[in-house]
Specification:
The complex is a heterodimer of chains A (247) and B (122). Chain A is built from nine helices and no strands. With 247 residues, chain A is an all-alpha fold. Chain A folds into two domains: 15-209, no CATH class; 210-247, no CATH class. In chain A, helix 1 (15-28) packs antiparallel against helix 8, helix 2 (37-49) packs across helix 4 (80-91) and helix 4 (80-91) crosses helix 6 (111-133). Chain B has 122 residues and is mainly alpha-helical. Chain B has a domain at 2-86. At the A-B interface, helix 6, helix 7, helix 8 and helix 9 of A face helix 1, helix 3, helix 4 and helix 5 of B.
Chain lengths: 247, 122
Amino acid sequence: MTEFAYQDAEFDIRADIKDAHRAFWDKLAKAGSWWTGEQRIAIAQQSRKALECTFCVSRKNALSPYTFAGNHDFDSTLPDIAVDAVHRIITDQTRITRKYVQDNVAKGLSKEAYVELVGVVVAVFSIDEFHRALGLELEPLPKPQAGDISRYRPARLSDDIGFVPTVPVDGAVGAEEDLWSDGRSANVVRALTLVPDAMRDWRALGAAQYLSFEAMQNFVKDDARAINRMQIELIAGRVSSINQCFY
Amino acid sequence: MLRVSATTTSTDIDLQAINGDADSAALGIEYGAQLMKFAESVATRDVQSLRDSRQRLLETAGPAVLVDAAGVAANFQRMVRIADSIGIPVDDMSSELGRQIRADLSLEEFASAQNTLEPSGA
């Protein structure tokens, strides 16, 4: 059966959205830089389980999420520390701190592995949210593929923003040359670049669901979209506001 | 981005649409109230509200608008999680436009504001 056929949709889904979802599913199943294909699928599974986790609901209501003890409801082949990170990203992301990320390093979750985990979680979550928004059944997760992790780390990194190293604005060179052009970038574009493939996945999915980097320069209307830029940004702004997104 | 787009197209809008005011959302933006409510329903994950707002948007604006709106809403459900999970600060805190928008929408009350306002202690 073809993945993302959207046979239960009562309306046409744009071809570029289907293609982007299929392309990410294919990459999801394969070994990444720091997690195997099996582990990446386990991360994806937890991103779905987090939404049903009663411990997450209780912790979300706690004054501090770092003094609230307990266990997540679901078994996983992942280390507990990774399961917890997935659940926090889905259910309580505004209270993730530098100290939390740093403490996780001491407990065995490297910043590189954390960034790839973030990339997988948010991509799966976003694709799932597209389905939920349209009232469609979620796509079954792909079967993991065998393969070795690459342990790839960009040669040029900076600690000037956020909780993890990122490729600096002038660092899109060599193997990272494709990340952005003209020596210009934004912090959100740099966010996942400790694992460049996570940034590339983010960019590809965003180009279909939102706008490509090039189309973002058009503040009137992209011909490939049924809604104009003001309509797009109204939706983006309202979703971001409810999620208490300062950025 | 909404403000920049409105300025580019010389359109009068009311930014309180971002905070959920339906009348504000309708000002200058076609299907604005329906799009705002749909986005709100996706983000709050209220099943009944989502069902109702989806149907209303479909009937009012048609399937192509609904699909594009779902894509944008789903995309921004992840954007906030990237920003907060990595703790990235706002790129430019010095512009007057940005300062005014943050004040109008009370954005500095958000917990994640500390990633910009107190980045070393976040």
